Amino acid sequence: MMKRAAWQGLVAGTAGVLVMTLGEKAEQRLTGRPDSHVPARTLERLTGLPERPRRQPAPLNRAMHVGQGALLGVVRSIMAQAGLRGPWASAQFAVVRLTNDQILENATGVGAPPQTWPRGELAVDLLHKAVYAFVTGAVADALAGRDGLGPGQRHARRAPGRHSGVGPLPRGRATG
Asked: What pTM value is reported for the model?
């Protein structure tokens, strides 16, 4: 499962980040909002690269943006392989994506907690990260669906909902 989840997640995460980036570029054309260089600055701090505050490091920005999105896609793919699929799982994953950004940006001193941001900027970031999460989820779910039901889905078929008297499925690929 983990090998499949890894490659499927990289594919799903890359698709999600590409669609998110297209949406960001369209939004920036409409609103006039400039590019953020927070991803590049975060990568500089994480890797110990020299910081050049007056230079806009576009290649580093793209590397962090795409790399982070692709790698986090593996988490969403693991969710899908386990049986956590659909819009509910994608909404859960959106929180994971936002949390990852905030941990890295705040731990490096590049960013500030979202509750301190201007509301418009926060709304735009939430929208773009939601697009990423739902596109990544759709691709991860489709790829995992080719492998059949995940363990959680098989368990749910046995007795929908949570029941104290229903134990775990037998080990292996039992269909329960």
From this structure: 0.89
